[in-house]
Design goal:
Layout: H1 6-10, H2 24-34, E1 46-51, H3 54-63, E2 73-80, H4 88-110, E3 114-119, H5 124-134, E4 140-149
Antiparallel strand pairs: 1-2, 2-4, 3-4
Length: 199
């Protein structure tokens, strides 16, 4: 990768995998990358379930309609009330766990692995299936499953950048075009109400 941004363009949804197992060291590296993700108020409202046994993977494959590919490892990203470090996790767990999941998928590219995001939350039936199969404890919600393995297909690097989806600066015609007004904090929240010392 000559361009440091190539890793982002090479991250593609890989749905075909070889039978080669993902090593424990690589799985640990992926989890470290996931937990390096940004987190609102540093709540870190996440837990991860790592699955490598074929029987459980097969159960997940058959339980979810979009999970028919055959990975050799699965990471389930959980939103976790029981592990979050403060109440901010309850408000922003989806964003935080999504950032962690994307970090894992990018790290997989860096390690020569492939991965695909299988959505679970917010579909109640999907959540219940995953909770049942993984015997999840109270206080956690499965956001997704990351199917991982050594890729058995190649996809060209690409960006889907479209200039028409970008607005440079404030949209024209807004009421704030004149004298600036002091914005009210959204929902009465402001930074002083929270301990941000760990950010």
């Amino acid at each position: 990768m000559n361009d440091p941004l190539d890793i982002f363009y090479k991250r593609r949804s890989i749905r075909k995998f070889t039978d080669e197992a993902v090593s424990h060291d690589d799985l640990t590296a992926l989890l470290k990358a996931g937990m390096a993700g940004p987190s609102a108020m540093n709540a870190q409202p996440w837990e991860f379930v790592v699955i490598t046994d074929e029987k459980t993977i097969e159960r997940l494959r058959h339980a979810l309609p979009f999970a028919k590919m055959k990975p050799t490892a699965v990471i389930c990203v959980l939103g976790s009330k029981r592990m979050q470090k403060n109440k901010g996790g309850e408000k922003f767990w989806v964003q935080d766990c999504s950032a962690a999941a994307e970090n894992i998928l990018l790290a997989a590219v860096a390690l020569g692995l492939g991965g695909v995001w299988i959505g679970v939350h917010p579909i109640y039936l999907f959540e219940m299936q995953v909770k049942r199969i993984l015997n999840l404890p109270k206080g956690v919600t499965p956001l997704n499953l990351l199917f991982l393995g050594h890729p058995d297909e190649e996809k060209e690097a690409r960006t889907q950048y479209e200039e028409g989806r970008v607005q440079w600066g404030v949209f024209p015609g807004g009421k704030d075009q004149g004298e600036p007004e002091e914005d009210e904090p959204a929902f009465g929240m402001n930074a002083r109400e929270h301990d941000l010392s760990d950010l």
